[in-house]
Each structure stands twice: as C-alpha cells, then as structure tokens.
Fold Ornithine cyclodeaminase.
Amino acid sequence: MSHSRTVEIEGHIIDSGTMQRCFGAVMDLGGSFDVEQFDVGTHEEAESYCRMAVSADDSETLQAILHELHQNGAVLDDPTDVDLVAAPADKVVPPDFYSTTNHPTEVLYDDEWIDVERIEMDCALIVEPEGGPRAYTKVLNAVEEGDLVATDESGIRVNPPERPRSGGGAFGFMQGGVSSERPSESTIREVAEELREVTEDGGNVMVVAGPAVIHSGAGDALAKLVEAGYVDSLSAGNGFATHDLERSLYGTSLGMDVETLEHPRKGHKHHIWTISEIIRAGGIEAAVEDGIVTEGVMYQCVRNDVDTVLAGSIRDDGPLPDTVTDAVEAQDAIREQAHDADIVLMLATLLHSVAVGNCLPSTTKTVCVDINPATVTQLLDRGSAQAVGMVTDIGTFVPTLAEFVLEGEEGEVAVGADGGHPQAGDE
Amino acid sequence: MSHSRTVEIEGHIIDSGTMQRCFGAVMDLGGSFDVEQFDVGTHEEAESYCRMAVSADDSETLQAILHELHQNGAVLDDPTDVDLVAAPADKVVPPDFYSTTNHPTEVLYDDEWIDVERIEMDCALIVEPEGGPRAYTKVLNAVEEGDLVATDESGIRVNPPERPRSGGGAFGFMQGGVSSERPSESTIREVAEELREVTEDGGNVMVVAGPAVIHSGAGDALAKLVEAGYVDSLSAGNGFATHDLERSLYGTSLGMDVETLEHPRKGHKHHIWTISEIIRAGGIEAAVEDGIVTEGVMYQCVRNDVDTVLAGSIRDDGPLPDTVTDAVEAQDAIREQAHDADIVLMLATLLHSVAVGNCLPSTTKTVCVDINPATVTQLLDRGSAQAVGMVTDIGTFVPTLAEFVLEGEEGEVAVGADGGHPQAGDE
Amino acid sequence: MSHSRTVEIEGHIIDSGTMQRCFGAVMDLGGSFDVEQFDVGTHEEAESYCRMAVSADDSETLQAILHELHQNGAVLDDPTDVDLVAAPADKVVPPDFYSTTNHPTEVLYDDEWIDVERIEMDCALIVEPEGGPRAYTKVLNAVEEGDLVATDESGIRVNPPERPRSGGGAFGFMQGGVSSERPSESTIREVAEELREVTEDGGNVMVVAGPAVIHSGAGDALAKLVEAGYVDSLSAGNGFATHDLERSLYGTSLGMDVETLEHPRKGHKHHIWTISEIIRAGGIEAAVEDGIVTEGVMYQCVRNDVDTVLAGSIRDDGPLPDTVTDAVEAQDAIREQAHDADIVLMLATLLHSVAVGNCLPSTTKTVCVDINPATVTQLLDRGSAQAVGMVTDIGTFVPTLAEFVLEGEEGEVAVGADGGHPQAGDE
Amino acid sequence: MSHSRTVEIEGHIIDSGTMQRCFGAVMDLGGSFDVEQFDVGTHEEAESYCRMAVSADDSETLQAILHELHQNGAVLDDPTDVDLVAAPADKVVPPDFYSTTNHPTEVLYDDEWIDVERIEMDCALIVEPEGGPRAYTKVLNAVEEGDLVATDESGIRVNPPERPRSGGGAFGFMQGGVSSERPSESTIREVAEELREVTEDGGNVMVVAGPAVIHSGAGDALAKLVEAGYVDSLSAGNGFATHDLERSLYGTSLGMDVETLEHPRKGHKHHIWTISEIIRAGGIEAAVEDGIVTEGVMYQCVRNDVDTVLAGSIRDDGPLPDTVTDAVEAQDAIREQAHDADIVLMLATLLHSVAVGNCLPSTTKTVCVDINPATVTQLLDRGSAQAVGMVTDIGTFVPTLAEFVLEGEEGEVAVGADGGHPQAGDE
C-alpha cells in the first residue's frame, strides 16, 4: 500500500472504545495499520498512548480512514496550522469546509492549540485572528462573507468524551455508535447472497416463521425457496402451519378471500375445519400423500424432506396432530435444529425466535425481520456475533428475498453454469 | 334478486351499533334489504325491533349475508330446530359445523330456546338431548366421536352485548370491529388504481413526504411518479428536499454511498454542502436551470410544474432558500394545497401529515403509510371519511406503488389506448 | 327533566352510525330522548328521518347534548338565522364563537341555507353579507377586526360524510371515533374502584401477568393486592414465577441487585439455580411450607389459596415442577379460570393474554396494560364489550393501582366501616 | 486492596471490544487493575496479549470482577483443572454450578483443554471422564443424578467471537451489549438526585416538553418543579403552552373535564379561545400580570423568570403571540438555551428534543423520556456521552420525579440543613 500517514491517539483510549473504533475503521475501509508504539496505562487512572502508521492503496481511501480516525480523536504526528479560507458569500461555505462534531475541539493556529467555543455538531468552524485569536462554530445560515472558515482536518483536534472513571449512576456511557440506516433493498440483496453461499457450500439454512408470513401473502415466496432447496429446517407453530394448509385446502376460492377478506369469521371456521381435516387424514404428511394438500409451505417441506418442528402454544386452536404440545419436548427438537444451523432466518415471530435464539451458539449467523422494532432489538441483543436486523413488512421482505435468491440462480445459469445448484434439476 | 330471506333483530339495536353493522353487511356483500317493519324505541330504555327481507343474486351471497347478520344477533323469522350431526371421530367435526362467537347464545331444540353454557369463541356447539336437553361449547380437541354437533346457523341465536344504559366509567363500549389484516400487495394495488383514476379524471393528487422516503431508497420511484404526471402538489420539509438534492448533486458516486453508507458523518458534510450550493445558485429552480441538479424528486417537480411547499422546522440544517421558515406562512401555503387535493398520500412523516390533515375536509381521500403503527393510527383518527392506513416500510411501499401505477399505464397502452394519459406523450 | 328541545336528523343515518352516536351522546351526557317520528329507509338507497325531543335536568347539560347532536348533523326543528358578532380585534374572536368541524357545513342567513366555503376544522366561521351573502372559514390568525363571526350553533347545519353506498375498495369508512386521551391517573383510579366493587360483591378477579411485572419492580405491589384478597386467580408462565421466586430466595441481597443490576449474567445463574432449588423442594407450595420462599407474588398466592396456572412455553428455562408444559392441558386449565372470571387484568404479556382472551365470553370486563400500543390494540380487538386499554409502564401502573385500591380500603375503614372487606381481618 | 489475582487475555482483543469491556468491568465493579504486560498486535492480522493483576477490597468483589473477565475470555494465569461435582438428583444442579455462555468454550481436564460440545447459553456444563474425556452442555431438565457438573469458573475458558478481519457485508458485528432492564423507580430516583445536585451546584437545568406532559395530567408536577427552582430554561412549542394555559384559564371546571373528557370537541374550542384571550391580553406575561392566568407551568415560568422559548410549527393553532414562528429565529433561541444547559430533560417530544439535541455538546447530560421506544433510541443516538433513556408514560414519570426531588429536599431540611437550596425560602 503506497499511501501512508502516521497518527497519534492518547487518553483513556481502550476503555472508552476509541482504539476499537480506530482499528475497526481502518479495517472496514480496507486499509492497514502498523502500530509503532502503544503504551497501555497500567492502572485505571493512567492514560494510554498509541502511534501508528495507516496505509491504503489509494489516497482517497486513506483520506476516508484519516477522517474516521480524526473524528475519534487521532491527530497527525506532524500537525500543521489549520487551513482557513474566506467564505465567498453569506450562508455559503468554501468547498472543503470542516464540518464540526459535537465533541470538545481545538484548532492549531500560529502553532498554538486554541479551544473552539460554542461546540455544536454539523457547523462550520470559524477562526477570528485579531485580538488574541478565537475559534468558534457557526451554523450555515450565520456564516458571513469573509468569515475565515476551517477546511480539511489538518490542524484540528477532536476530544471525544472518555468513559467516566467512576460509575455514572443512571447515566450510561454512550459510545456514539453509528447507526447507519441502510437502504432496505441492498441489505436484502446481501442476505440473499449469504443464503446462496451457505446453500452452495452445503451448509444448513434454518427458517423460523410466524403466521404473519402467511397472512401477509408471503407464503408463496417462502414455498418457492423451500422448493428450490434453500431451506433445510423449519421451526414454526401450529398457527403458521394451519394458515398455510388452509390456503392449500381451499384452493383458488381461498385465493379470492386473501384478496377481499370479506368474511373473517367464516375464515376462522375454515381454520378449525382445516385442523379437523388434517386430524382426519392422520397428519400433514398423510394429507400430502393423499393429495388433500397440494401446495404451500408445508407441502413443499414434506416434498423436500425439510426437517420441520411445529411447537405448540397455549393460544393454539386444535392443535394439528403434528404439533408438539409439550414445551420441553418441543424445545429439545428446536435445540437440535438450532445446533445444526449455519444461518437462521427469523421471520415475524418473537416467541419462536427467542426459543431458537436461546439455543444458538454465538457463531451462528442470524437474520431477524419484524415490523416491530422492539422485537428486532430484543433478538439482536441475544448475542449472535454476526447478525442482520431489519424492521420491515414481512409481506414484502420474503418475496423480495426469494426474487433475489432465485434470480441470482438464473443469472448464474444464464452465464453458462451447469446448474450445480442443489435440487436445481428437480424442477 | 331471486334469493331472499326474512330476518328479525331486536334490542337496543341502534345505539349498540347492531343495525349499522347489519345494513353495512348487506351492502358490503352486494345484497339488498327491504325493511318491512322498524319500531324504534322512543326512549333510552325502550328496545327497538326490525324485520327486513334480505336479497341477493345467488344463494352463496345470501348465505354470506345471513352469516354476518346472524353474528350480529339476527334470527330468521321462521326459525327451525338446530341441525345436529354426530362427530365422525374424536377431534373431528362434521363439514358444516357451527363455529361459536364469544357472545351469549341460545339454540332452538324441541321448539325451545336453550342457553348455551361455557360461552367461548371458535368452538363447536354440542347439544346433549338426554335429561333435560343441555347445550355447551367444546374446543376441537375435546370433541368426542358421537357428540351431537350443531351445523349451519338455523336454530341458533346470538346475543351480542348491548351498550350499557349508563356510562361504563373507564370501560369503553367495544363494538367488535372487524380489523381485517389485508395482504399488503393487494391494498397497494387498490391505492394504485385509485391514483390512476383520480389522475385520469383530472383530479388533484397531493403527496406529503418525509426524509425517510429518500433514506430508504424510494426517491427514484417517487421521481418516476412525478415524471409520469401522477403528482400535482408536494408538501415536504427542508430535510426531504436536501436529501433528495444531495443524491442528485453527488451523482453516481453518491449512489455508491447509498449502497455502502461507509461515511455517515462525511454524508452529513455533503448535506450542509448541498444546502450551501443551492444557496449559491439562488434556489432549487435556478439550480435545475443551471444544470446543477439533474435528477430526483425535486428536479422532476421543477420540470413538471408541481406545486411544491417546503416548510421549515426547528430541526433543519440550513435551510434551503426555498424553505418557508415562518410557520404561519407555511401553514397557509399548505392549506391551499390541501383544499385543492382530491387524494392525499402521506408518506412517512408525522409532522407534515398532521399539518396537512388539520386543513383537510372530511371528504378528501387519504392514504397514510408509516412503519410506526402509532403514526398511522393518529393520522386516521383525524377524520377523513375514506382512508387507507398501512404500517409498512416506505422503502418498499413507494417502489411497489410506482410499479403498479406505471404497469397499469403500459397495460392500457398495450390494449390500444390513445395515450390519453396526461403527459404520457412528454417522456 | 325540565329543559327540552326538538331536533331533526336525516340521511343514511343508521348505516353511517349517526343515530348510534346521537343516542349514545344523549345517554352519555345524562340526558333523555323521546323519538317523535322515525322513518327508516326501507332499502339501501332510501334515506331515513328522525325527529326527537331531547331533555336534560339543567340547561348546561342540554347545551352539551345539543352540541354533540349538532356535530353529528342534527338541526333544531325551528332553526333561526345564524348569530353573527363582529370580531373585536385582529386575531381575536367573540366569546361564544362557533368552532368548525371538517365536515361540509351550511349556515342559515336571511332564511336561506348557504354552503360554507373552504371547509376546515377548528376555524371561525365568517359570514360576508354584501354581494349575495357568502360564508367561509378563517383560521384564528386570519381573523380581522369587524369580521362577522358565527356564534353558538343555531342556524348552522353540519353534514357528516355518509357511508358510501358501494364498497370503497381499500378505503375504509371512518366514523370519526372520538379517541379521548384520558389522563392516566384518573383511569387507574376507575379501574381500582371497579376492582374493589367486584371483590366486595364476591366476584372473581383474574390476573394475567408477564415477567415484566417482576423485572419492572412491580412485584411487591401485586403481592400486596394478592395478600389483601383482591386476586382470585393468577394465570402466568414459568418465567413470571421464576423471577418472582428468585427475588424471594435471594432476599435482601437480591434486592440490591434490583437496584444496581451489575451482574446480569450472574443474575441468570440465579434464575437457573432458583428453578433447581424449587425442584429439589418438590414444587412451589412445598418451598413455601418449608420456609424456603418467604415473600413475593407466588408466596402470597400459596398463602391465600389463589387458583394459579403456570403455562409452559418453548422459551422457558427449567421449567419449574409446577409449570404445565403441555399446551393443551394448560389451555384447559386457563379456560376454567377464564370462565369463572368477572374481571380480568392483563398485565404486560401478549402470549398469556391472547390465550385467556380466546376463552373469554364477551361479557367479561377486561383491563389490558402494556407499554406496546400494538399489544393493547390486539387484545382490545378480541371482543370484550367492556374494556379498558392503557399504554403505559407496568412498573408504575401496578404500584399506582395497588395504592388506589388499598387507600380506598383504608379510607372506608377510617369513615367507620366495620372492615367488611373480605380477608381484611386476616392482616 | 488486599485481594488480587492475575489473568491473561489474548486474541484480537482491542478491535473486538474485549479489552474495553474488561477494563470497564473492573472499574464498574469498584476494583483496580495493574497491567503487567500488553503486547499490541502491530497490524490487523496480529493478535494482542494482555496480562494484568486485578485487585479488590474484598473477595466477593474480586469474584464478581473475575466472573465478568471470564465471560469475556480472560483466564487465570495459573489455571487448574475444572471442579466437578455430581448432580444430587435429576434436574437439580450443585450450588455453584457453572452457567454457560453461548460462546465457544473449553474446559481444563487432566491438564488438557477440551472443547465443550453443543454450545448453548444458560446450561450446565457436564464432563464425562470415561473413554477419552468429553464435555458438553445440558439444559437443566436434562441433568441426571450423578452427572459431573462443572462448578466455579476455574479451569473453564470462554472464547467470545472476534471481529471478522474483513467486513461482514450486511452482517454487523455485535458486541453482546448488556442491555440491563432497570427497575423504573430506582432510575427515576437517580435522575432526581442528579437534578438536585446540578441545582445545588448552581448549574443549569433545561426542560424540553411536549403537549403530552399536559394531556397526561403531569402539568401540576412540572409546575411544582419550576416553582421550587429546579428548572432554569423551558423549550417547548405553541401546543404545550396553550394546553397549559387552557387548564389555568378554565380553572376548576376544566379540572372536571380532565377527569371526564366528555366534550373533546368543545375542548378544542377552549383551545382556540385560550389563544384568542392571550392575544387580547397581549401575551403570556401580560396575562399573568393581569391575573388572567393564575397557575400552571407557564404561570410559574413567568413568576420564576425561567428562560422560555416557544417554537412554532406548521401544525399549530393560533399561534400565541409569544410563539416564535420563524424556524431559524427559534433555532437560534434554542441554541442559546442548549449551550447554557448542564442537564437536559427531554419530556415526550421528538421534534423539540431533536432540535435541542442538534445544538448540544457531547458533554451535556441528557435524560430522555417517551412512551415510544423509537423516540428514545433516536435521541440517545445523537451522541451525548452521558445519557439516560426511559420508555415510560410521561404522566407517571414527571409526578414521580417531582416527588423524589421534593421529598429529597424536605428530607435534607429535616436533617437540619440550612435550607441553602435556591428559592427554598420562597415557599
């Protein structure tokens, strides 16, 4: 890597998370670091000091890395005076104006570090040279023509808050985590790629699904993923299976109901009737074999030998004969599925997702999708080391995921692949 | 209408909402009614009585209507004994088993109305003839072979709870509103059709949009709707416009950022810089004319003469010179837009949607979309008579809506239409 | 009732809910009505007409009733010209100014009904007599000195939107329900009174509780309610009981943890250890008898013979030997509790509340409290006729409720009551 | 500190956050560390190594610290074989059983580190000595009498997942943050203490309040805090002030309405009328001086010279003459308040809280309270270094806070303090 600069960082930089963020930034942005000196404070009051060279393949990447390090308090080891450019007009800033953080900040002017007054984020930083130089922030619409505006980051030092040495009582120490709001589609695309990779590598994909998957009309898309071999195990409840079976049992006429939903209570009668019919047939597999059930997620699971666990709950109707009503027995079955999984998709179910999450090693990748932010947060807190959380409508997530997974497949085929995808020959 | 039956309803049926639901059910399901007698209780303790003939074009529809009326307490005027069929096996019910409501219920057996014991919804209704006949509910898995199970609805009378004569204190009177969870896609399709109809009829479509529309990547889809002539006015804030302009100003490179979002704070600098550039150009329209802004929602609004109001707020950066910073002045401008609108789409913004909603007559159709259920509920409470609320991800809603609106348009053209759609020839 | 006026209402007033709201308003406000004429439209296109006399004990109540009827489209049978008063200053309205609704409106001026222009809610209504009289709305800050402002409601006719004759597609017909945001404390006070009444009448109080009741520190308050005899049955899960028992088992040291929560994972070890100890003792009742468990909700339930059902779930640790792990068996036990209850408190648990709600007749009063609005909405939709929903923190709700219930009790005693409250003598 | 042990930690321990958590745990728990050796990996692939002595005043604290370090992968520098104790009965574990994490784990048995199979959290760890020793987890109800269960933490090594060396795509690296659900009351107590301390030290308390504070009935409590001198500046909107003034203007009769809320629309007329009256008086201060407004938050703010900013918004009625309708002007006024504040209470308002948060340095303490978790999360993400977030009902938070603040005051006085509290003499 041909582009390199050396930076210094000091303070309580380990326990405040500063070094973690700095090392992370270098790696995330594709750079490399070489620690030249690292003096770790030997006790809690002692500060630490780190000097490291940071490198990147191109100057643009290096700039991006230095920007992140700067925001975390790093300074170039050979700082020069702040670069000042006069504002070209009222409310207009020069091209490379420095945009402030909300942390205490200093500027190097005439070889002296001056404190910046009126700290506030996303402002311009103005230096007033006359009368003992002063530096302060200005919001955009207060900038006046001729104001000396700081540009670039050289000569500017940020001091992010450090972890209090003694506990802060109710006040938690915030690390200013960057919560990037990612565009939905690109995230779903990445999940689709991961799903394809795991499957191609012979790995195990576990799906945990709630009844909202069927209610929202996403059942067909999930059935397609099962049919195409992207699901190895399914963990769900009596409600999920019954809703799915009901759609199959009532064929196209039920299709109309999904559009119009005129008779919700009549619908509930269908629900009970579906369970009664499956009981009469002797279970889901028998109902598939007898040709009673001819489509849907459960149908595809039977046809594709997907390891399925339906766990009972106190709010179940019926239940179906396939439902494991004993909580301990169901938990044991779920445990086996969870231990075998390489990636778990948790789709719109808090109860089943928590049950699965309780059994997962922290090394299993998890994807959690729910319309309720609290559900997503709760599941991500469970401790997977690599996790994706999405707050979105399951009725659009699953179809979009299926489209991306399956179009990737076709794309590959189109390019001339031999259809090496598992089960691709079946369909 | 050739199929017809006569029913009777009695009790406090007006103030308990029973008649409203009964008349509504007939009309919703495409039937017709003929009130033969209606005695309205003349004071608050007096009960009312209604006898009406209900008709439908086919017996299936008539059955559906009678089912709804039955659930609301209506009884055929010539009730016959309950139909009983023996359960064919344990946990299996006969085909047309009657599924209970949770309201007090009676069955007509041997010409006498007997109270049903153990009222609970979604159960089978069992009649035990011996020893002074008894009737009670059983959940599916308690049903035993040979149990006499009620089928159909004849000979069964439901008594929905009536409004308490005196106020219930903290306890509100619930009317058991049927909250149908509709599949997302079919609802979006109906909104798309409405949008096309209003536009084809020369009506006015108002869009109220929050910054999440842009953050979630839905800006392109909204820009397409504007370009295709489906938006007559846009009501938004400084943040929405700035995010949209930023995407345009930073061209394809910004496109990459939307994918990766590596530098969120750098992103914020872009935000301030965008405002600074628009100020330098003299406003959004000037920036479009100068070729600085070349795509996006604001670009299309300028190009298609969309009536745009950007209202300021205390959390704005900048603001843009186009932003109306005075709340009273902004409110007046929004009021003009609202009074002209025939349909309003409220997209992921509580603040602007409430401001618009305050000015709307109750006759304007409204569509409100937000990921937060509380926002949707609050907006629907404002009092439009015809409203759609969807709790979903704006990042998938707008693209799906645009797809349905625009595909409908092509479909029409394909059928040989003359391209009468406004502006269809422009692009 | 000495004060009386006669009003007329016409249109699709039954299926649009107008009559329901009008009758309801009279009763809610303590008035009385006497229907003089009611012509019900005999088919769906025919309009209905109602003329009724409304009475109240005092003129203030009568005014309040007439105001509500007016808002729903009723007109006095002897309407007089609108009362106009000149605005005393810019932006200042006369005392009894008429505040508009958002519905189409007419004013009677010179014996003619004129349409009001620019309909918008919460505005003043201005009449301009010159040049063929006009009427329109003005927001407060547009009112100018001398504007003729309508006062009172006489001579003003509101036309609320009517239910569309044919289905509105995706667009639901909104009835403009008045969602009163009630001050929290007064609602809790009413629930407390209801609880006391039910208990004093020998009724049955059922509590459904989630683990958040204990986590949030509300366990002590619930234990006090049990101890004082206000709880007849408890429906909960393994988690609720274990958390409660853990607090008891670890005595004061655990009390400290509840304050500081330094070792959450150590806390979880306590959780497992608690279950292990109860298993060793042979169950909760045995643990109470052996003096192992000496306080808390479960302790009080054992001591006060509260009918307790702990239902298992797939996310349970352990479980405790008292937990019913089979979902069907647990459901049956819950069903018995639900059928016996006169009032049910659902405290911060969706799973158990839905299970209980499924078994409840619509005549049982329910109170549902959760921090998540979606949970509250879902439970209220289940169809109790008399229900209270509160979106609030369970950690403050239960202590406040207990305080109100128990202070009421003391209050009664203080007044000289003989302590007739059940079990009051026990403590 | 007399108790001490030495531990070793190795791996990518800086960028995975391990060292931050370890140093933090020692300090949080009141211990002390002495780093004996710290070799920092000089580039991204190189692992780091840390050996440090940990001390505490008593052995219990030391154990607590070692437990936390252990969970983060630290091992004693002189590890001994795992301690095994036979399970005394089925489903019963020995007292000090080791409760597993969900991270890969090893046990030292016969001087060799063996991998633990079937990793899952909150389980017992069983060692099977025969046949080449094996170790695996068992959930509580699978434990059998005689199983050799690991106790304590010696001889057990946990390997928390490390940050992937290359970016994980959509999958974020989770640090297993401990989200302690704190009992509500103890947190409010800590905030109350902080408020008292800041005020006693002559610091500046800023309150940002939304209209829900008044709607929920918490206005009286806030007024008491203002009266007692605990509020230096108030940042709110037109709606907040109007609701508060309306309560004062309508005196006790309005008090009744807050209880019953019978006439919500009549209530809205009061709202407009209140604004009209304040306009007539010439503003809030004038209305207080004229004796028109005699109680409430705004009254106390005028009487106690609280620096008040009412910012306008496009959804305002009126507005009041005191409302700053220009967004830029309002923002500047808010900025001055924010820069002066030492602690900020954000009460049930997203709009105003974001506006204030945008201007705050990261060193200002913030307390954010809202019923909506998304609001709290969004505000805490803004980057205060010391922040408290509470998802709770504002209607119970403010009265409880006021009670704790004011009872603390009396308590102090009771103890014999000289009443040095500002303004304490006034009341």
Q: What stands out?
A: Confidence is low (pLDDT under 50) at residues 175-181, 252-266, 411-427 of chain D. The CA atoms of residues 90 and 144 of chain D lie 4 Å apart.
